[in-house]
């Protein structure tokens, strides 16, 4: 493991080369980037499926493209990479419990009110924003797959976003 400190004029940074021996340092560095929280839903032959993610990002305004990236190690990876359509739901600051429903051991759609869109994909009402997408492309990206989607419909409402940083949920405060 190669970790050096104090090469940037006394800022006490930990400088390292990302590899297996520095995996925790790498995760900690990535965790300093605050993200929003989203739930991605799709339809499978076995029913609706969802996953909480923070890998959502916009790609293009014209054409309207977004992407997200599930881990290949996820039990839901194959279902999402096979789905022709998916919906990305951006969560509000009050929806941390909704995010927990779609983590590894969460309740998922059990007892949750939802509707289907025109493509048969589950839509969760009341989220901060929603992007209904048709899969445009898949790209191999190491231990993840980048799923690129063309946005067919979008919706949003006023409210504060749910934020995730350094392993913790929170909310954005402007100055």
UniProtKB/TrEMBL annotation:
Domain Flavin reductase like stretches: 30-171
Keywords: Oxidoreductase
Annotated signal sequence range: none
Molecular function via GO: FMN binding; riboflavin reductase (NADPH) activity
Key word Oxidoreductase present: yes
InterPro entries: Flavin_Rdtase-like_dom (IPR002563), NADH-dep_flavin_reductase (IPR050268), Split_barrel_FMN-bd (IPR012349)
Family: Belongs to the non-flavoprotein flavin reductase family.
PANTHER family: FLAVIN REDUCTASE, FLAVIN-DEPENDENT MONOOXYGENASE, REDUCTASE SUBUNIT HSAB
Name recorded for this polypeptide: NADH-FMN oxidoreductase RutF, flavin reductase (DIM6/NTAB) family
């Amino acid at each position: 493991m190669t970790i050096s400190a104090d090469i940037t004029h006394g800022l006490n940074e930990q400088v390292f080369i990302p590899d297996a021996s520095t995996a925790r340092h790498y995760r900690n560095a990535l965790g300093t980037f605050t993200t929003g929280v989203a739930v991605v839903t799709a339809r499978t032959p076995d029913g609706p499926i969802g996953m909480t993610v923070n890998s959502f990002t916009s790609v293009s305004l014209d054409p309207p493209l977004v992407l997200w990236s599930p881990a290949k190690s996820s039990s839901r990876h194959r279902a999402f990479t096979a789905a022709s359509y998916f919906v990305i739901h951006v969560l509000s600051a009050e929806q941390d419990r909704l995010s927990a429903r779609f983590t590894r051991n969460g309740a998922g759609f059990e007892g949750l009110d939802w509707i289907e869109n025109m493509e048969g994909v589950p839509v969760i009402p009341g989220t901060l924003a929603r992007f209904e997408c048709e899969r445009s492309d898949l790209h191999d990206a190491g231990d993840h797959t980048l799923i690129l989607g063309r946005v067919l419909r979008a919706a949003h409402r006023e409210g504060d976003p749910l934020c995730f940083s350094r392993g913790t949920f929170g909310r954005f405060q402007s100055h």
